[in-house]
Amino acid sequence: MNDYARIEKAMAYMTANAANQPSLETVAAQVHLSAYHFQRLFCRFAGISPKRFLQALTLERGKQLIASSESLTNTVHALGLSGGSRLYDHFVQLEAVTPGEFKRQGEGVEIAYGVHPTPFGEMLVAMTPRGICRMAFVASVRQEALLAELTKQWPRSTLCHRPDATRYAVKALFTKPAETPASIAAPAALSLHVSGTNFQIAVWRALLTIPEGQLASYSQIAQALGTPKSSRAVGNAVGANPIAMWIPCHRVIQQSGALGGYRWGIKTKQQVQAWEAAQHSPLLASE
């Protein structure tokens, strides 16, 4: 079992047993490590301690968001949509496929792809010369199916297995800027190259404005877009998100505070939310 697989298994165990608050020793035993070595390994690959992750799992974050004293107007303003397209902490540029590109169906385009380990399971990354066009967890969808989707979307393109060219898209998510080696550092502006309807593009841009460690409901996003009755359509657009993590559909929940759906599985959504919360919440213990 490699280190990423150990972290993935440990996170899954803590998610399934959060109500029992398993001890560090108990979780470490699940991946056949001593508590000391497991603590160091988890901090290295997840960027937080196991205790912080477990605490974040037990917080009713959805209810905290919905029951907060801030009005919907303030929430919409916090999304940054009222004053333009402010992106969240990572500088991400989202570019839509042009009509000409759509008509050519990828003719003459080389799409590089690779599969890379993450604390939440292996992730497939694909990118055109203009930016990342697909990121997906392969545990929920087979790699062959994901590549078939790419071929269907870009039937005249050429798929090339080039993990060295796609690795930075994952490294940039899980490595702090000060710790990122120059050899794998992402460009100053990370570009996403997506294909979708005008409404889908608008929803995906809205998701980019939700800060890390915070959540928004489908109805809040609909309100922010100026279409308050389009919550269901927002949900469909969120579900069609082609780029996991970088377009943070995991930060969208139901108005009731329930997690809602997630293309790559509810457990993964819960783990990603807890991981982000543990890194950004001052209410959690530091050890």
Automatic annotation (TrEMBL):
SMART domains xrefs: HTH_ARAC (SM00342)
Catalytic activity: a 6-O-methyl-2'-deoxyguanosine in DNA + L-cysteinyl-[protein] = S-methyl-L-cysteinyl-[protein] + a 2'-deoxyguanosine in DNA; a 4-O-methyl-thymidine in DNA + L-cysteinyl-[protein] = a thymidine in DNA + S-methyl-L-cysteinyl-[protein]
Key word Nucleotidyltransferase present: no
Keywords, alphabetical: DNA damage, DNA repair, Methyltransferase, Transcription, Transcription regulation, Transferase
Domain HTH araC/xylS-type: 8-105
InterPro entries registered for this protein in UniProt: Homeodomain-like_sf, HTH_AraC, MethylDNA_cys_MeTrfase_AS, MethylDNA_cys_MeTrfase_DNA-bd, MethylDNA_cys_MeTrfase_DNAb, MGMT_N_sf, WH-like_DNA-bd_sf
Principal EC category: transferase
GO BP terms in the entry: DNA repair; methylation
Pfam families in the record: DNA_binding_1, HTH_18
EC number: 2.1.1.63
GO terms for MF: DNA-binding transcription factor activity; methylated-DNA-[protein]-cysteine S-methyltransferase activity; sequence-specific DNA binding
Xref: NCBIfam families: ogt (TIGR00589)
Protein's UniProt name: methylated-DNA--[protein]-cysteine S-methyltransferase
Native source organism of the sequence: Vreelandella andesensis
Organism placement in taxonomy: Bacteria, Pseudomonadati, Pseudomonadota, Gammaproteobacteria, Oceanospirillales
